[in-house]
Amino acid sequence: MTLALLATSHSPLLEYADLDKEVADELEQNFDIARKFVADYDPDVVINFGPDHYNGFFYNLMPAFCIGYAATSIGDYGSQAGPLNVPEDLARSLAEAVIADGIDLSVSLQMEVDHGAVQPMEIVYGDITAKPFVPIFINSVAPPFTPVQRVRQLGESVGRHLATLDQKVLLIASGGLSHDPPVPRIATATEQQRRMLMGEGGPLSPEARVVRQQRVIQAAKDFAAGTATIQELAPEWDREFLEIVASGDLTPLDAWSPDEMTRIAGNSSHEVRTWIAGYAAMSAAGSYTVTHSYYRPIKELIAGFALTTVTLD
User: pTM (2 decimals)?
Assistant: First the structure.
């Protein structure tokens, strides 16, 4: 058994934002570091902790955690669409081990994932089917949220099981740090937005998806220009989070309440739950070292954007 972790922000705006050349070059340099890290490690399988943005999971039934025995990428924001290469036997054994640990976990034999799950695979491999891939969904946008401690325990359970396998496993944690994009919220939704959040009518039509994407793209332009009403990024909060996960002791995060996370770092800051699960999985397998860490608040992406690579000691 060997474990390694790539924890990275994602952004649907990467292909759409008008970034300064310095920022674009800096991002590409860090993506190159991630590509080399993954290529040198050459995993047998990828275990992905990812969120969803009301594309595969809706309020008609919103689990806290779900493992996919089979999964398809919907292809939003120009991401690669199609079936993922999910090893069902591994996904099932992982789910059974986590449930046996007392973690309340759902499973899906027909999971749909969006850019939040597949973008890192596109960045490092150029193909979402390049490696066997087990998706683990963590609810990061739809209140009420499970306590952070429970996310840590999920990750530890996953890590304990993976540590028993005779495989090289790459964990990918895909989630933003502080950010507050214009995602409708159930508490303030219009009737039309509420139907979308409930998943009524099934997945968005291509036309509706274009409208939704254009709204986010325009919000990012307004945010960079200082004219948007969305919440500011929180670099100090982001850096504190990165320091905690790098320390090897994740328990201080147990005291972070969902309401405070939203107040300080935005409604979508809960995507750090994917990072917590990934780092917790590493901690269950042994002590670890962050071998590379990058962070920059990027308003054009509506994101405190970070990328870390992690190995066991």
Answer: 0.97
